[in-house]
Specification:
- The structure is a single chain.
- By secondary structure, the chain is of the alpha/beta class.
- The protein has 2 domains: 9-60 and 173-339, 3-Layer(aba) Sandwich (Rossmann fold), CATH 3.40.50.1100; 63-167, Rossmann fold, CATH 3.40.50.1100.
- The protein is 45% helix and 15% strand.
- It is built from 15 helices and 10 strands.
- It has helices spanning 9-16, 35-41, 62-74, 90-102, 120-127, 137-140, 143-156, 169-174, 176-191, 205-216, 234-249, 276-289, 298-310, 330-333, 335-339; strands at residues 31-33, 45-50, 80-86, 105-111, 131-134, 161-163, 197-202, 222-226, 261-263, 319-324.
- Strands 1-2-10-7-8-9 form a 6-stranded mixed beta sheet, with helices on both faces.
- Helix 4 (90-102) links the parallel strand 3 (80-86) and strand 4 (105-111).
- It is globular, with a radius of gyration of 20 Å.
- Bound molecules: pyridoxal-5'-phosphate.
Length: 343
């Protein structure tokens, strides 16, 4: 790894502060120990960064993203957002909440959603007032076409619609929220005198933000990202997104693909299908330190954490920090599988 210039936390903060921001997350989120899980696994000390406690309609990583992404979109004159997501999506819910906060109309196209129980994220989407389009399996095959048609109709009515999936740049802007989280975590790590920090969580944009923060401040934190989805070629994605984010913030950082260890072996049958290993991990985290993980994202990352500690994937002197990125309402969508799990 090569870093051309190391920034102090205050200098990094000054880069962040140049961007428009809306304060919608409850910050700082706690960084706390998981003493009972640590004891049960008998490995390195485990801590947890509680991004599930950001607030904003049940919390999660998108609260930080939208602090930066939502003003960016609103400032460009868009007056209605269109989002295409899966029926159980956390993103769908948190976007609805953030849209309400800024007073933006929000249309939600949900795939594979027709005839589902209105439960979990879908229930919250409805309560938040998202304009729901619940597609059946056949329609879901062309959800983008469905969105384009809707967008054209809105344009004909004089609106300026913003289809989230058509724009990458604002989503990169959203990642700044996790560069901010990196500054926050550093402060908490220093307060608690933690050494040899190794952060593990879902491999995605939030982890990219933390990597950018750590590298900008010259920190030797290690990162393990856990894949939850077969669709995204992650190594490239992380590398490229970190670079994009560096450009947004104008940071003097260079990246290597080795900046994050990516674990692909916990995906199971794929996104949206909870494996027995994930169900077990959800129960272990709950029954030790009373942490609730979700069936798609944080449950998979928790399964990886447990397995890696059992298999010696972390060294004893490391402080392992589990990045809990939220997703709690999804537990209710998977109620039947979780309730019938024998663990
Ligand atoms: C609970 C949870 N964790 C992690 C992620 C990954 O998000 P990102 O790629 O923005 O880090 C998501 C995405 O929706 C999520 O819902």
């Amino acid at each position: 790894m090569t870093t051309t210039k190391i920034l102090t936390p205050a200098e990094l903060q000054s880069h962040i502060d140049k961007l428009p921001r809306m304060n919608i997350a409850h910050l700082p989120t706690p960084l706390e120990e998981m003493p009972r899980l640590t004891e049960r696994l008998g490995g390195p000390k485990i801590w947890i960064k509680r991004e599930d406690m950001t607030g904003l309609a049940y919390g999660g990583n998108k609260a930080r993203h939208y602090e930066f992404e939502m003003p960016h979109v609103a400032d460009q004159g868009y007056d209605v957002m269109i989002n295409i997501m899966d029926y159980h999506s956390n993103n769908a819910r948190m976007t609805a909440a953030a849209a309400n906060k800024i007073g933006m109309r929000y249309i939600l196209i949900l795939k594979n959603a027709a005839n589902r129980n209105v439960q979990g994220n879908l229930l919250i989407d409805k309560i938040l007032g998202a304009e729901l389009h619940l597609l059946d399996e056949y329609q879901s095959g062309n959800a983008e076409g469905y969105a384009t048609k809707l967008k054209e109709e809105l344009e004909a009515e004089g609106h300026k619609p913003y289809v989230i999936q058509e724009h990458l740049f604002p989503r990169i802007v959203g990642m700044v929220g996790f560069v901010q989280a990196g500054v926050e975590i550093l402060e908490q790590i220093e307060e608690n005198n933690l050494k040899c920090v190794h952060i593990i969580g879902v491999a995605g944009r939030s982890m990219c933000g933390l990597i950018v923060a750590a590298k900008s401040m010259g920190l030797d934190w290690k990162f393990t990202g856990v894949t939850v989805n077969y669709d995204v070629p992650l190594d490239d994605y992380i590398f490229q997104h970190s670079k994009d984010l560096q450009d947004v913030l104008d940071l003097p950082v260079t990246f290597a693909e080795s900046d994050m260890r990516v674990l692909n072996q916990y995906v199971g049958e794929g996104y949206g299908v909870m494996s027995a290993q994930v169900a077990e991990a959800i129960h272990i985290a709950a029954q030790t330190d009373a942490i609730i993980c979700d069936p798609n994202y944080t449950g998979t990352a928790m399964a990886a954490l447990i397995d890696q500690i059992e298999e010696g994937g972390f060294s004893e002197d490391e402080t392992v920090i589990f990045l809990h990125t939220g997703g709690l309402p999804a537990v209710f969508t998977f109620a039947d599988q979780l309730a019938s799990f024998n663990g």
